[in-house]
Design goal:
Number of helices: 1
Low-confidence stretches: none
Distance between the termini: 30 Å
Radius of gyration: 15 Å
Strand order of the largest sheet: 2-8-7-3-4
Length: 145
């Protein structure tokens, strides 16, 4: 499943307040059921996210993103946050959303949200791999205009 993320608007506020360091903080992704209703305008921290999935091969809080890079393209005036595709092997689960957040702060009420992906429908794995393919545009792309 190839996906494009929707950034939480308050992620920019978290960046401006130095709550997030994309180069050194631990970034994670978690999966949520269709009962979660993302709100780009009001959700700022992990504690705002509800209905995280449970299932075989999935641990609460999700998994750490690997291969995280931050690049700036002067020709297009864009900043891109990218990472390796997250995957849950030998899993049995059902998910509608993937939520990326900064896991470095100690409590859920202080862990800034970055973006979420809506799969468009429930995605299911049954004793197999569940992989979310990050688009060629990265996890998120921000344009300086």
């Amino acid at each position: 499943m190839a996906l494009t993320a929707k950034m939480y608007g308050l992620f920019l506020k978290s960046l401006a307040n130095k709550e997030v360091d994309l180069d050194s903080d631990t970034l994670k992704v978690m999966l949520c059921t269709s009962s979660y209703t993302p709100n780009q305008d009001t959700h700022q921290y992990k504690s705002d996210v509800t209905n995280e999935i449970t299932g075989t091969g999935y641990s609460a809080g999700g998994q750490t993103l690997t291969g995280v890079t931050v690049t700036y393209n002067a020709a297009t005036n864009t900043l891109m946050l990218d990472a390796n595709d997250p995957s849950w092997g030998s899993s049995t689960l059902t998910a509608r959303y993937l939520v990326a957040y900064d896991d470095t702060p100690a409590t859920a009420a202080a862990k800034p949200l970055i973006c979420y992906w809506d799969f468009g429908q429930d995605e299911v794995s049954s004793s197999g791999n569940f992989t979310a393919t990050i688009s060629g545009s990265g996890l998120i792309t921000i344009t300086a205009a």
